[in-house]
Every structure is written in C-alpha cells, then in structure tokens.
Amino acid sequence: MYLFKNALKCIGRAKGRNILIGIIALVIAVSACIGLSIRQAAESAKAETLEGMSVTAKISFDRQSAMQGMRPSADGASGGTQSGAFDREQFRTLMNGGTSLTLDEYQTYAAAESVQDFYYTLTAYFDGSDELEPVSSESETESESSAGAPGGGMSPGRTKGDRMGNMATGDFTVIGYSGDNAMTAFQTGSTTIADGVVFSEGTTERQCLISEELAAYNELAVGDTVTLANPDSETETYTLTVAGIYKNTEANDLSVSMFGVGQDPANQIYLSAAALQGILDASASASETTTDAATGQETETAVGSSLSATYVFADADAYHRFEEEVRTLGLDDSYTVSSADLTAFENSLTPLNTLSTMAGWFLLVILLIGAVILIVLNIFNIRERKYEIGVLTAMGMKKGKVALQFLAEILVVTMAAILIGAGIGAVSAVPVTNALLANQVESQQSSQLQLENNFGRGGNFKGGLQTAPDNLPTGGRGGFAALGQNVSNYVTEVNSAMNLTVLLQLLGIGLLLTLAAGAVSVLFVMRYDPLKILANRD
Amino acid sequence: MEILTLQNICFSYGKVPVLKDVNYRFETGKMYCIIGRSGAGKTTLLSLLSGLAKPDGGSILYDGKDVAKLDKYAFRSKYIGVIFQSFNLLTKFTAVENVMLSMDIAGVKGKNKRQRAMELLAGVGLDEDEANRRVLKLSGGQQQRVAIARALSYDPQIILADEPTGNLDGETQKEIMDIFRSLAQQGKCVILVSHSPEVAAACDEKYELQKLSGKKEPKEKAAS
Ligand SMILES: Nc1ncnc2c1ncn2[C@@H]1O[C@H](COP(=O)(O)OP(=O)(O)O)[C@@H](O)[C@H]1O
Ligand SMILES: [Mg+2]
Predict the structure, then answer these.
(1) Could you tell me the residue ranges of all domains in chain B?
(2) Min Cα–Cα distance to chain B from A23, Å
(3) Alpha carbon distance A21, A7 (integer Å)
(4) Up-side HSE of residue A301: CA atoms within 13 Å toward CB?
(5) Over the stretch A401-410, which tens digit does the pLDDT of each residue have?
(6) Closest residue (by CA) to atom 25 of ligand 1?
(7) Can you give the pTM of this predicted structure?
(8) A residues 512-531 closer than 8 Å to B (CB)
(9) Are residues A244 and A133 in contact, defined by beta-carbon separation less than 8 angstroms?
(10) Chain A residues touching residue B78 (CB < 8 angstroms)
(11) What confidence tens digit (pLDDT) does each residue in A303-344 have?
(12) Is 3.40.50.300 the CATH number for B30-51+72-223?
C-alpha cells in the first residue's frame, strides 16, 4: 500500500511534469468524450425513434420493373413481347389502375404473421350539387371559365387508357376509411371533430364528415344532408348525411388549392369505406359504356376509385420480415413493398449518421496521436527518473513494484484528467453535437437543394407532386407532408449525448492509453540496473 | 558472532578484474574498516555485500547462508543497512519521508513509523525542522545523517558505509564516527569503507584492499 502513497507523493512533488501529462490527457479526454457522445447520440436517437415508432408500409406497383420486363432485350428473348416491338396495349394496362392490387389481394398479405394492423382507404372524386358548392380560393367565374383545368369541371367521360385512368378529378375528394385506425389524421390529432361525431366504424350508412370551411361555405350543420354527383353523369347523385364536422388543427398550405379544388383539404369528405363502396357499386351498375367511333376507345361513366392499403408493423424488424413473407404469399416481383415512414426515418438520420461516422474517425485519430504523445512523454519522464529508480531498487524495492508505482502515477493523472474531461464533455457535448449537427444538416440540405436545382426542380412544388400519387389516397395531406419531409425533417437536435456508456468507454480509453504508456515505463524500469545508475552518479 | 563471511570473492567489470580472492570475516559488535586507495574496488566490494552485484566467483555468507540463494531484495531491504558514498536519498522527499519509505519497503510493522523515524533522525543529530526538510535542502553532513538513519530504520544486523567521512569537516567526521561506534556497541556489525587512515584507526579491525593492476599480477603488497 505504501506504493500508492508513494505514487501520490511523487505526483505532488513533480507538479509541472504531471500537469503537462494531465493537460494532454485532458485534451484527449474532452475530444474523445465529444466523439463518443456524438456516436452515442446517433445510436440513442435511432433506438429511441425506432422504439416508439410503428412502421407502416404500402405495396405499390413498380412501373420501372414492369417496363423493364416489356422492353425487348438484345437477344429478343424478353418475357414481355416476342416480336421486339413495344406493346402499347400492354403498356397502357400496366400504367393503368388495373395494375393495382384488389382489396382481396391486399387482405391476403395482411394475413402475414408480421403484420400488426391493416387498414385501407378508398378515394373517389365527385362533383357537388346546387346546395353543395366546393370551397375555392379562386373566384367562381374563373373556376367555371377554366373548364379545361384539372380542378375544373371536366368534360364528361374519360377514356379508359387515360393517364389518370379512372382516377378522375371532381370538385370533392371523397375518402372512405376502413376503420378508425385508417383515419391517421384523426389519430395524430392533426384533424379533430369540431361538431357531431365520427361515423361508426365500418358502417354502410351514408354518413359523412365535412370540413368546417365547407360547412360554413354551404351553411351546413350536423344532421343536414348533402348531395354528390358523378362527375361523368350529372344525373347520378348520392345523398349523404352530415354526421360530423371536422377541423384541421394544422395550417393549410395555400398552394394546395392550385392542384384543383378537389385537392383542397376543405373539400374532402370522409366516410366509411363500406359506405363508399356501396356508392361505387351503385355507380358501377348504373354505368353506361360508350365507344368512341373515331379512336375505338371505350369510355364508361362509373365513378372510379383508388384503393390504398396500409400495413402496420410493431417495429422495423417486422417490416423487413413482411418484405420476405409477401413474396412467399405470392406477390409478384413487379410490386414493391415500401415504407415511407421508415425511409423518412432513415433519411432523417442521415446528417447524424454522417456526423457519427466522422466522429468515429476523429476519435481514432485523437487516440492514435494521444497514445503516441503519452508514450513519448512517458519515455522522457522515465529517463529523467532513472536515479529515482536506482535508489528505490537499491533500497530493496522490487522492480515490479517500482514499475507498478510509476504505472499508478500515470493512471492517477490520466484518470483525473479523464474525469475532468468527462465533466467538460458532459457540459459541452450536447451543444457541440447540436452545432456540428446543424452544420451537417445545412450542408445536407444545400447539397440536396443544389441537386434539385440541377434537375430543374428548384421549387419544392414539383418535388411534392412527384410523391403525391402514392400518398394521395390517405387524404391528399400525406403528399404534402412528404413534401416537407424531403427537405427539412432531419433530426437536427439531440438532447442527451453523455451517459454511463460514454463514461465507461472513456474510462476504458483512459485505461488503454495508460497501459500503453505504462507498458513503456515497465519496460524501462525492468531494464535498468541500479548498480550502473548509481555508479554513474559518483 | 560471525555474521558475514566472504569466501574467495572475485569480481571484474567485463574483462577488467577488480577483486580477486577476497576472504574477509565480519562479526557483530565490531567496527571494521576496508581500506584501500581510490579505485581499489572498495565501492565494488560494497555493492557485492549489499547484493547490488553478484560476485563472479566465491560466495558471501550471511549468518552462514549463501546470500546468492537469498532474495536479494529482501536481503537489501531488511538485513543490511547501506550508506552509499553518494547517499542515494530521494531528493524530492523530506528526510523523514526517506526514512519512512525505507521502513515501508522493509515491511516494518507498527503504527508510529513517523515517530520512530523522527527518533532515528534525532539520534543522528537532526532536529525536527531539518527532519521535515527536503533532502535537496540539506547539507552534505546532514544528508549523511539521513542516510545513516535510513540504514538503521529497519534495525539490520549489518551496517555498511561507503566513505562515510569523505566530504565532511573534521568536527562532523568525529560526530559521525561516534554514531558508528555506538552502533557497534549496541551489537551491530559496522563495516566502513574508506581511504582515510584516520577512519581505519578508529575501527576495531581493518582489511586492506589492493588495487589490481591492468594485469592479474598484484603490484605491491604492503602499500597503505
Ligand atoms: N560500472 C563500472 N564499469 C566498469 N568499471 C568500473 C565500474 N565501476 C567501477 N569500475 C572500475 O572498477 C575499479 C574499482 O572501482 P571502485 O570500486 O569504485 O573503487 P573505489 O570505490 O575503491 O574507489 C575502478 O578501476 C573503476 O574504474
Ligand atoms: Mg568508492
């Protein structure tokens, strides 16, 4: 035990030297602490978000791979066509809504073991009636005159092969929800009921929810009825009862109305999917099919709809299992499984992950340089203390003990430096991490913006449009949320960086550096012969 | 009682022989002087006695046991007290700390080590202020006293001193010699190494160490 007392005494008697070692160790400790904290922050940000996150996924048709299949390959042995000519008919079918899965198919995959929850929405477009005018920011006359605009009243009858297919646009977007769980906006609270109640889950009764704006615009109240018309057949009408009035708690993007009045969140009407299906069935049976004499294209008047199914998973692992499972359940390769929220989550971590990787390299460099400096310093230190070693061994202190005492001295100094460093690190890690992260996010954003500019998509408008078709059925809003996500939804802040793991890692590093430096001192002590050292003094 | 015996000790630094067939016997309660000219190998012999070096030939017996077979660290730290020519004190430590550290290394038991160290220092003529001063700030004579106190700290049977009066004034020399005399009277075996005839005259017995020439043949036998 005298060994440690002696070590402490020696530290006190050689302040200058130990302060120098201490300062170097402190610099290493603070840098290492911040580096480790950044890595830790990235880890915990990931873990925390993943933990609370239930992952949702959609199955969508992969146009890219479908077109790949149709394109004649060099040897002409393509699966799509034998002649090598581009099959327009097949292409049309592929590009059309006909390629989307049916509800039955969606439900087959919902049976996969990994799926926690499943819901879907049906979206259809209707026109209003005299007592139900769509809310519009444009003046009435303007709206009427621009009949050709996508939002205006479209000419009745659209061709089957049209790009938009049977997803025609009307004044109102009518969305049918399979259940309460499908009403994500209500789940998250971005939309709430202002008056009345939400229709009961799965009801076939034609009860609907309308927006506050629409209610005010048409002087409607709970219990009133509204009449919707088939945009392709004005005489075909359906009457709904207003069960409730909802309001958006999130501010509307004004630009939204530019996509057409039907896309305006105020002009969305919600009802149960079963009820909407009933209306669609009725419309289908009342449908008339006409054939254009000139082009031979068939046109029908039935109200078209699009189906969007969402699978919910307990965690990311379940989602990845699902990707495998659907294939065994028979999902064709031309369909892809994708999770917007997982992708968004991964994207949101990009700056933090980049920072974490950089911190890792920084840490490595610091440790290497630190180790070299400490070892060199220690060699000088030991050479200077040659005489002391000689005296101690001549007094009968075993060389091992002398080495241990020297090791203890370095250990005490570096550990003290590391504790102080950890303290400084704990205080500065979060602000430093956030400052670095802000930098990283900024460069990430500017490089992304640059990229978009290069592609001529400078305005985030078109970027939004691109994602819109996938997200449309969730109520239009999803598309616009994705628009924001692309640019600014990065994890920009961490709130805790330093924790016990970091402290332990830091102590481990300190121990490692000390041992590296200490090993050198042990080597030197063991090599010295007291007789020679003391003889040289004479 | 015979405590230390040298049998046919030979030693050389590399190819240069320093000691050849040295046969000395030391008893407790007596004061010895190993006298020889500078470079005769006195310090070398002392290094062998204190276990810092091993003889090339012959053996050293401590209380009848071969020192080569004892743990050299234990031997150094417990059985033999050495006062080196250059004292070999830890200069950054105080006098009393040097003495206490020596006790610690020897594994001396007991609580009042500090008090015992202070007593030892007082015994060799250092007051409390000097005892608590860093060795670096003590004079040569005072350092010599600290080295003696340190050698006594674990109460060894044998005390070895290399040129104990080397750079001391006459008065101090006498005081130091008195200390050694009283130690011998207490029953210790005191072995002084010196080139000084005065020191030799104060001892009970003396051994003369001849300087070996570059060759193996000893030059003059009776030079003193
Ligand atoms: N470490 C050493 N290496 C080589 N030769 C040495 C060493 N120490 C002493 N010598 C030589 O051994 C001889 C005896 O030295 P030493 O024992 O110090 O003599 P003394 O103490 O009697 O003056 C001298 O010739 C000296 O040069
Ligand atoms: Mg000498």
Answers:
(1) 30-51+72-223
(2) 23
(3) 15
(4) 19
(5) 999 999 999 9
(6) B39
(7) 0.68
(8) 530-531
(9) no
(10) 396
(11) 888 888 999 988 888 888 998 888 888 888 888 898 888 888
(12) yes
